[in-house]
TrEMBL record:
It comes from Cudoniella acicularis. This is Short-chain dehydrogenase. It comes from the Eukaryota. GO terms for biological process: secondary metabolic process. Belongs to the short-chain dehydrogenases/reductases (SDR) family. One of its GO terms (cellular component) is cytoplasm. Gene3D superfamilies: NAD(P)-binding Rossmann-like Domain. InterPro entries: Fungal_SecMetab_SDRs (IPR051468), NAD(P)-bd_dom_sf (IPR036291), SDR_fam (IPR002347). It holds the Pfam family adh_short. PANTHER family: CHAIN DEHYDROGENASE, PUTATIVE (AFU_ORTHOLOGUE AFUA_5G01530)-RELATED, SHORT-CHAIN DEHYDROGENASE/REDUCTASE. One of its GO terms (molecular function) is oxidoreductase activity.
Length: 183
């Protein structure tokens, strides 16, 4: 059970990937945390929490699911109200949730405009709305922290195709080796 002095942390996009590993690191810490595991789906949050309990059985921290979809103001507001009701403040907000639509574009499932619009909605507007909404709870903390995780969704594959940057042929549209492999 978490101690009274535990820090309260919200990690968005925490049911998989870097968000999941961040929550896991908090649970493995010697310090006690109360962690809100943010996920678009409460079912996926619950599955992630089950896995975390198996991986971190000795934790002194607590973790609970928080449904939050960055494309929905209503979802963000509901998540805010849940944290506001209990514990009423937030020490750390880790903005990790994000999406990439490049693969959908390359596969012809969305237009270039849809690719940019969807990406902006989640990664820029959604993150900004969530941060602005939760700011009053962060300001109640004696030691608030605001962290942004960005641009890591395909870093390994991108590194293979972009670094060092391969020569690009004349003409338009430009296609990198990375896009050819992914498309």
């Amino acid at each position: 059970m978490a101690s009274i002095a535990s820090k309260v942390v919200l990690v968005t996009g925490a049911n998989t990937g870097i968000g999941y590993e961040t929550v896991k690191a908090l649970l493995e810490s010697k310090k006690a945390y109360r962690v809100f595991l943010g996920s678009r789906s409460i079912e996926k949050a619950k599955l992630a929490i089950e896995s975390l309990h198996k991986e971190c059985p000795e934790t002194t921290s607590t973790v609970e699911g928080l449904q939050v979809d960055l494309t929905s103001d209503e979802s963000i507001e509901k998540a805010f109200e849940q944290v506001k009701a209990n514990p009423g403040y937030l020490d750390t907000l880790i903005n990790n949730a994000g999406s990439t639509f490049d693969i959908e574009y390359l596969a012809g499932r969305v237009s270039l405009r849809e690719c940019f619009t969807k990406s902006y909605d989640v990664n820029v507007a959604g993150t900004h709305v969530l941060t602005s909404t939760f700011m009053p709870l962060l300001l109640k903390s004696a030691d608030p922290r605001l962290i942004f995780v960005a641009g890591l969704s395909q870093i390994t594959q991108a590194a293979e195709g972009y670094f060092p940057t391969p020569p690009v042929a004349k003409g338009w549209p430009k296609k990198s080796q990375f896009e050819r492999r992914m498309g």
